[in-house]
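Z., the sequence and structure:
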Amino acid sequence: MADFLTALQISASGLSAQRQRVTIAASNLANAESTRGPDGQPYHRRDPVMAAKAFESQLDLASKRPGEASQAVGVEVTQVVEDQTPGKKVYLPGHPDADQDGFVTFPNVNPLNETVNLMTASRGYDANATAVDTLKTMAQRALDIAR
């Protein structure tokens, strides 16, 4: 039963991380034309930073030797960073956010890249959801056998 719960924890961490990736990519797409944010500057695209996350089950803690690494690993978003590359400058002298030379700085968001990020995050989410469903089916069948 502990292995089912560990596998479920790992898939749940993947679901959470992929959901955050989808949210960030959608935010980037939504702000692809935002030339002025609350700070008066154009929007800067954001990227999630992911890292491996070890899970310590009670069984692992009891059987592990000091200094030994955990076997079960999931993923987590450790931070969200702003991409500081400069945005695209477009000559639009009538635009309210144009500088003294008539150029408007647009966000550094590439809609094609963000769409690909959205698709890969969505597929990662689907894969983890399928793993959860498979675990659920396996646990149900194990309970049916025990009856």
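The chain has one domain: 2-146. The radius of gyration is 22 Å.

Let me know what you think.
H.
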